[in-house]
Amino acid sequence: MKNSTSWALTAGLLLAAGPAWSQTAPAAPAALSGTLRDAATGEALVGASVFVKALGQGTSTDENGFYRLVLPKGTHTVTYQILGFEPQQVTLTLAGDMTRSVKLGAQRQQTREVVVTGLRAEDNVKKPEMSVNRLDMKTVKLMPALLGEVDVVRSIQLLPGVTTVGEGASGFNVRGGGIDQNLILMDEMPVYNVSHLFGFFSAFNPDAVQDMTLYKGAIPARYGGRLSSLLDVKMRDGRQAERLTVNGGVGLISSRLAVEAPLIKDRTSISLAGRRSYGDLFLKLIPEQRKNQAYFYDLNVKVNHRFSAKDQLTLTGYRGRDVFNFADVFKNDWGNMGASARWTHQFSPRLFGSASAVVAQYDYGLGVPNGTQAFDWTSKIRNYTGKADFSYQLGANNTLAAGVSGTRYHFEPATVKALSAESIFRGLKVDDQQAGEYAAYLDNEQTLGPRLQLQYGLRVSVYDFLGSGTAISDYVGETGQRKTPVNTRTYQDGERIKRYANLEPRASARYTLDLNSSLKASYTRTAQYVHLISNTTAASPLDVWSPSTNNIRPERGNQVALGYFRNFHDNAYEASVEVFGKTMDNQVDYVNGANTLLNKDLEGELLYGQGRAYGAEFFVKKSQGKLSGWVSYTLSRSERQIDGINRDQWYPNKYDKTHSLNVVGMYQLGPRLTASASFAYGTGVATTFPNGRFVYEGLVVPVVSGDARNNYRVPAYHRLDLGATLKNRPRPDRRWQSEWVFSVYNAYSRRNPYGIYFRQNEDNPRKTEAVRLAVFGSVIPSVSYNFNF
Amino acid sequence: MKRFPFFLTLLTAGLALLSSCTDVVDVELPEPEPLLAVEGNITDQPGPYTIRLTKTGPYFQDQEPPVVRGAELVLSANDGTTETLRETAPGVYQTRQLQGKIGQHYVLSIKAEGQHYRAATEIKRIPGIDGLSQQYKQNEPGWDNGIYAFYNGPELPGAGDYYRFKIFLNGELQNDPDDLVVRDDALVDGRYIGGIELNSEPLQPGDSVRVQLLSLPQDYYYFLNEMFTQINNVGLFSSPPANVRSNVVNVDPAGPKAVGYFAGTAVRSARLTIQ
C-alpha cells in the first residue's frame, strides 16, 4: 500500500514536472501547421497571425496562407487573426505533429474595407525583418490616383526611403540606388520595365495585384541579383471556394476587367485580368488620325491547382505592351512578358519545398514601314530561371531556409533590318550576348531567448559571361574619354569568357525592449550582374540591359541599418525610425555625349565609379479605425564618384533628395463614402546649370565652369492629391456592387518643375533663357467607375 | 532630312499629349571665368579660311562676345606648308595662300593672352552629290500636301564616315538648334542615299534649296553631336548637361582651357530651284 502510494506520488511528480522539463529542453516539441483561408472565398489569408497567448509564441502565414508553429506537446489555445476578419480561438491537444486548417469569416463591411497595410501589425515590433514596407491593393485603391489609374509604383514612391527623378519618370529609387537596382518580381517573374506610356503608368494592373512588399534593406538571402531593393508583387490567384466573380472598371485612361472563378471546387481556380487604354479609339473619330494608334494593355492569368493538401501547382502568365503607330510612317512598341510555373510540396509539417520555372522577357521594336528610310529595329532581353527553395523547422527555435537557382540570360541589344531594296539602310546588328547566373543560399531564423531573434544567412552567387560566337574586345584609352577596342577575339557559343563570384552575407537581429518596442539591426551585401544602360534623366523604353562582361564588372552593395520599432495603442499605430548607410561599387556611368543605342562599342563609352547613400527614415502608420494612413519623413543623401565626371569628385545623384515627406490619409465618412488625401514634399532634384556661353556658327553653346555635375537644385516639389470613393447602395436582391472613384491630382495646381533647361530664345537666337518644364501644369481631376458581381 | 533621325524625338512628341508646360524662369548664375572660344574651318574649297577668336561670357549676356585681338595664329599642314594668319578684322584671322586638301592633317597654333593652344584636325574624304529632286506629295500619311525637295547621292563604302548637312532655303542657312544635322554611316555604309527629304514644310515654285554636305573628322562629329545634344536638351529624356568637347588644347595642361573647334571638312553642294 505504502509502495503504491509512493509510486503514484512519483508518477504525479513526474507528470507535473513533464511540461516544465520540455519547456527548458525543447527536444520533444511538436509542429502545428495548416492553412488559413477566407471562409467566404476560400482565398488564402497571407500574413495572418497565429499565436498561443499563454506561451507568448506565434507566427504568421506565408504567401500561401500556410503557417507552422512549434509548440510543446500538450493542450493549447491557438488564436488565428488577421485584420478585417473575425478572430478565431481553437483549443487543441498536441500529441505529435498535427495539421489544423482554419477558415476565418469577414468582419462587418466597413471595418473590412479600410485596411491600411493590414498585414502583421505586431510584426513591426516582433519580426527580425526591417526596412520592409507592405501595401495591399485595398489600401492603394483608396488612395488618390493620377487620372484614375491606381498605380503600384506611384504608391511605392510615397514610402520612406523611396524617391524618383520626377513625375512621369519610369521606376523608383530606393535608398539612393538606381532604378535598375530594384528586383521587381511579379510573382516570380522579373519585370524589366515597370512602365506604360514612358513612365506615367505602371505595368501592374491593379485588379490583378494582391499585395506588394518592398524590401529596402535586409533582403532575405533567398533573393539576389539587384543591389538596392526587392519589390515583391503578389498577383491574385482567385482561389475561390464559391463562385465566379467579376471585377471591372471604366476610367479616363483605361478600362479593366478581371474574372476569378473556381474551375474545380476546392481544387482548381483561375484569375484572369485585362486592362487596355483607349485614347486611340477617340483618334478613330478624326479622319486624319484614323490610321494612328496609341495604346497600352496588360493581360494577367494565374491558375492554381491543389492536388492535395500537400501539393499545389501555380501557373502564372503576363503580357503587357505599349503600341504606337503613326499611320504608315512610324511605329514603336514595347513590353514585358513572362510565365512561371511553381510547384509547392509539404514533405512534412516541418519541411516545405517549392520548385519553379520562370521565363521573362522585355523587348521593343521600332521602325518605318515604307519608303526609302524603311527599317525595322528590335531589341530584347530574355531570361530562363529554374529554382528550388526549402524551409525546415528545426526544433522550436530555428527555421532554416535553403535553395538554389540558375538563370540563363539572352541579350539581343539591337538588330536593324532594311525593309526595302531602295532603303538607304544597310542594317546593323549589335552582337547578341549570353550569361548565366547561379546562386545557392542558406538562411536561418533563430530565436535566442525571449528577447533576441536573429536571421542570418549566406548567398553565394556565381556569374558567367558567355560567348555567343561573336567577337568581344577590351577597351583602352584615357579615363573619362571614349575608349577604343583592342585585343578583339571570338568565343564559341556558350564558352565562358569571364566568371565572377560573390559571397553575399545577410544578417538581421531583433532585440525586444518591451511588449511594444524593439531594436533591430541588419547588414546586407548584394551583387548585381545586369545593368540598365540609360543616360537620360528618365529611363526610356529604348534603353537596353547589358550583362556584366569582361569590361563591365558586377555591381556590389553593402548596407547597414539600425532601427527602433514601436507600436502604440494595441498595435493601432506602428512606428519606426531607421538609419541606414550604404556603399555601392562598380557603378556604371557614361562619357559626355555617349551613344547608348545601336553602338557596337558601347563598352568604350562607359565610365565606372562608386556610390554612397545614408539617411534616416521616420514612419508612423495607423491601420485601424475610421482614419488610417501614414506619415513618412526621410532625411538622406545619395552621391556618386565617377572617374571622368565632375573632376572625379563626389556629386549628388539626380534623385538625391535631402528631405522627403509623405502624408497619406484615408477617412471613412460613412458606410458608403471614404475620402482620401495624400501630400508629398521633396527637395528638388539635383541638376547642372551652365554659367557661361560661346557662339559657334550662330548657335549658342552653354559652358559649365569646372566641368561641374549636378551643382544646383530645381525648386522643391510638393503636391496634394484628393480622392473619394462612393459605393452605390447595395441591393440585397442583386450581387452587383459598384462604386465611383473621384480623384484630383495636383489639387492646388502647382507647376512642379521636372527640370530647368537652358536654351536659345526661339525668336531671338542670340538671347538665352532658363526654362522650367512642369510635367503637370494644372489640376488633373478624374472619375472612374468600378463594379463587381 | 529632319525626319531621318527621329527615333527618340517621336517618343518625346508622344508626351505632348499630356498637359506638360514650360515657362521662362529667372535663375541666378555665378560669373564664369572667361575662356578662349575658337570657331574656324579649313576646307578643300578655295580659301581664305577664317578663324574667329572670342571669349566666353556669362550665360545670359546676349551682347556680342568680346573678341580676342592681337593673337598669333599659325596653320601648318603635314606636307610641310605653313602660314601665319592675318587679323583682317578685330578677332578675325584669315589665311591668304594655303589650300586645304582631302587627306591632309592640319595643326593650328594659337598664341593669345599669354597662353599657347594647339588644335589638330584633318580633311576627310567625301562622296559627290548626284543632285536634288522634287516631288509633289498629296494625301500621303505624315506629309502635308505640297512640294518637297530630296537629296540623292552615294555613300562611300567602308564605315567610319561622318557628315553634316547644311540646308539653305532661298539663300538662308537653316540654323535653329534642331537644324544641326550630323550623321555617321554605321547604318547606311555604302548604300545609295536617295529620296531623303530636305524640308519639313512644303515649298513653293521659285523657292531655291541648296544643300552643303560636309565630311567630318570623327572627333568633330562628336563635337557637333554633343553640341546638338546640349542645345536641344529639354524634357523627360534629356541628357546630363555637360561641356561640349574641344580640340583646342592648352599646351600647358594647368593653364586655362579653351572651347570651340577648329575643323577640317571637305564640302560638296547641290542646288535646286523648285519648278
From TrEMBL, chain A:
The keyword Nucleotide-binding does not apply. This is Uncharacterized protein. The keyword Cytoplasm does not apply. InterPro entries: Beta-barrel_TonB_sf, CarboxyPept-like_regulatory, OMP_b-brl_3, Plug_dom, Plug_dom_sf. Residues 375-681 form the Outer membrane protein beta-barrel domain. Transmembrane segments: none annotated. Residues 1-22 form the signal peptide. GO terms for cellular component: cell outer membrane. It is found in: Cell outer membrane. Keywords: Cell outer membrane, Membrane, Signal. Residues 150-226 form the TonB-dependent receptor plug domain.
Automatic annotation (TrEMBL), chain B:
It holds the Pfam family DUF4249. The keyword Signal applies. It comes from the Bacteria. Residues 1-24 form the signal peptide. InterPro entries: DUF4249 (IPR025345). Keywords: Signal. The keyword Signal applies. This is DUF4249 domain-containing protein. It comes from Hymenobacter edaphi.
